[in-house]
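Form 7-S
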Amino acid sequence: MQKRLFVAIGLPEDVKKRLFRFVEKEYGDLPACPAPQLRLHGSNRLSRRIKDQNRLWCGVKWVRWENFHLTLIFLGYVSDENILGVCEVIQSAVQDFQSFELEFVKIEPGPTDEIKKMIWATGEKSDELSDLKYRLDKALGFHVGEKREFRPHITLGRIRKEKWRKILPEPEVERDFKFSVSVNSIELYESKFEKGKRVYYILESFLLE
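Output:
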């Protein structure tokens, strides 16, 4: 058997809920595409509001708030017998690594304003985060040259390219939104598709000092 794995920084529940409330408030009334006979399922207020209007802002597929995280490395499919070895490599890589803080400052398109694929919560540059990613990349066998700056970003939504182009004028997505995250551990997640939705499970946590 194989599992679909990635390494990430998990977010506290209060931060995930703050992000969700901000998305709901700021983007709930953005331009929509007609959707005749649309049926949406969900209990949150954003879903109900869209359902009442019988319209869907179809340019973005929003991430469920429970799934908000900061990805460090996507490992892909890993066989069950190799997972313990992966955990040992990660543990060794983060040994003696100190806890640190990340400061987030805005919501914006990514990876660039010219190439819009995601809607991200982005943060200030962090030497500690860049060092951590470099260590993990090197330990897990990813090709690395010199250490590169790794700017923190949390994916809130994925832009549906063709549908996005049909929304005129193009929605203004960028917003100021400040919050901080204490990074005291990193997690190895399994990604599964269950009952029509993506679900993430923590397989192992690795504490920082």
